Amino acid sequence: MKKNVLALFGALLLCAQAVWAEPILKVEKLADGIFALIGPTGGRLYENYGLNANFGVIDTPDGTILIDSGASAAAARLLETEARKLTGKPVKWVINTGVQDHRWLGNGYFAAQGAEIIALQRTTVSQQKLGRAQIEALSGVLREQLQDTRPTVAERPQPGDSAHLTLAGRTLEIRYFADAHFAGDVVVWLPQEKILFTGDHIYVDRMLGILPESNAETWLAAFDQAIALQPARIVPGHGRVCDVAQAQRETGDYLRFLVSGTRKFAEDMAGVDAAVGALKDAPDFRHLKNFDELHRGNINRAYLRFEAAQ
Ligand SMILES: [Zn+2]
Questions:
Q1: How much distance in Å is there from the Cα of 237 to the middle of ligand 1?
Q2: What count of other Cβ atoms lies within 10 Å of the Cβ of residue 10?
C-alpha cells in the first residue's frame, strides 16, 4: 500500500514537472506580428534540441517568415510549432542569418514543406563547405534528432552584399558587412520597425565564441556597421533582446579589447602565452556567462590569426 502511495506521488511529481518545465524558447513580442524566440544561453544539449540560440517569427497575410531554421530537422519541427502558435500560419519563407549549425540545418525540413529558403550567395557558399562536418559534430549530442537532417541551402541564393525583400507586405533587408563568427554571416534589418535580427554578430548575457572559422577583426568591423543602422530593438544571436548600449558593452567592447590586445602582442611576436597572460583577467567581461570556458580560447584564436598574418 505504502509503495503504491509512493508510486502515485512520484507520478504526480513527474506530471507537475512536465507542466511546469521551462519552455526551451521564450517568446518576446517586438511589434505587431514580429516576435523573437529566445533560446537558452548554455551549450547545445539533447534536451534543448541544440536550440541554444535566438530566432525570429514574422507574421504576414500569406504565411510566416522564420528567421533561422534550427540545428536539425527535429529542432525545425519545434520551431514550426512555436511559430504556428504565434501566427496560426505555416512557415512560407526561411531567411538564414548565417552559417553556424543552428542558423540553417533545419532548412531541409522547411524546404520539404514547400517553404522558400532565402540567403545570400556568400552565406550558402560557406554553408555548403561546412554542412557535413557540422552534422557529424552534432551527432554525439543530438543523436536521433538529426534523422532526416540534410544540409540544404537556398535554391536561388541572392548575389551581392544585400537583398531587399518585400514578402506579403513586410519589408526586410539582408545585409552582409564582413565575415564575422563565420564567413558569410548577415543580419536581417526591418527598416520600418527599426528591429535588427543580428544572427551570430551579437551575443549578450553570455561570452561570445571565437571559433577557428571566426575572424575577430572583421567581426568587429561588421559589428560597428550593424550598430550604425541605429536599431531600436536588437535580437542578438544569443542572449535576451537588447539595445545598442548593451550590445556595445558585451560584444563590441569585448571584440575591441580582444582585437587591440592580441594585435599588439602578435606585432611584437611576443607569443600566445604572453597574450593570454596579459589579457586573461578582463574584469569588464567576467560577468558574462561562459567566461571561464571561452575567454582564454578566444584570446588564443584571435592571437593566432594575427600571428599568421604577420
Ligand atoms: Zn550561434
A1: 6
A2: 10
Cα–ligand 1 centroid distance for 15 (angstroms): 33
Interatomic CA distance for residues 161 and 180, integer angstroms: 14
Q: How confident is the model at residue 11, as a pLDDT?
A: 58
Cα of 100 from ligand 1 centre, angstroms:
6
Q: Are strands 26-31 and 63-67 parallel, antiparallel or unpaired?
A: unpaired
Confidence (pLDDT) at 266: 95
15 pLDDT above the threshold of 70: no
Tell me the pLDDT of the chain averaged across its residues.
94
Alpha helices (runs of H) in 168-251, residue ranges in sequence order: 216-227, 244-247
d(CA 88, ligand 1 centre) in Å: 27
| C-alpha 119 to ligand 1 mean position (Å) | 17
Ligand 1 centroid to 6 CA: how many Å?
A: 43
Instruction: Give the alpha-carbon dihedral of 28, 205, 138, 196, to 10 degrees.
Output: 50
Q: What is the mean pLDDT of residues 61-65?
A: 98
* pLDDT tens per residue across span 246-294: 999 999 999 999 999 999 999 999 999 999 999 999 999 999 999 999 9
54 alpha carbon to ligand 1 midpoint, in Å? 8
CA–centroid distance, residue 152 to ligand 1 (Å):
18
What CATH number matches the domain at 25-222+231-242, 3.40.50.2020, 3.20.20.70, 3.10.129.10, 3.60.15.10? 3.60.15.10
**Quick one: pLDDT at residue 303?**
97
CA distances from 99 to 120, 180, 291 (A): 11, 10, 23
Phi-psi domain of 57 (left: phi exceeds 0; alpha: psi -120 through 50; beta: other): beta
Q: 16 C-alpha to center of ligand 1: Å?
A: 32
